[in-house]
Amino acid sequence: MLQITNDVTLLPLLGTMVNAYLIGDVLIDAGIRQSAGPLQRMLRGHHLSAHALTHAHPDHQGASHAVCTARQVPLWTSAAEAGAMEAGTLRRAMPRNAVVAAEDQVLTGPAHPVARHLREGDDVYGFEVLETPGHAPGHLCFWRERDRLLIAGDVLVNVRLPTPLTALGEPPRMFTADPERNRTSIRRLAALDPLTVLFGHGPPLRDPDLLHAFVARLPGS
Length: 221
Prior knowledge:
RibonucZ/Hydroxyglut_hydro; hydrolase; Metallo-B-lactamas; Metallo-beta-lactamase, Chain A; globular; 7-stranded mixed beta sheet; NDM-1-like; alpha/beta
């Protein structure tokens, strides 16, 4: 576990190849299905009031059912991601290819009811909800203006997948519903000028200049 601020903790589920976050008493994302045991051990001694998802891909919702059931907390997603979460299959929520089909079989967590649909401008433990579609239709980010801290989910990654090497980049196209729309979301996030960016995949980024330089190199910039 890595303390980012006094009320934000990174929960590394596969090194920092797959991350979840604890913001106050709200869990953001939950890794793959096999993350349930490690994640619940990390959460011991921490009060949990809710669990929210950036998006309902298998490396983010995999242990959601296990955590919500064990801790008796509600699950929150965007309206666009709720259907996939409640169906327990992501076949209609992700691009169709052999890798996605295999992941859906092996990594996707069980279905779980969504208690609240998060929308643009909602508050989650002092973080503003941002609707950032592209990688997933209902992808959400979480932004805190006072210390310019951004939980970016998979709009960006900070690892050269499938290796553990640190590298700022776009999410893999094979898992991205609409790459061009995702680039619009990347530009929106960069315009916030965050001091710290937290990712679903990869270590934190604390260099705003690196983010702006990356965005400047995107096609169409």
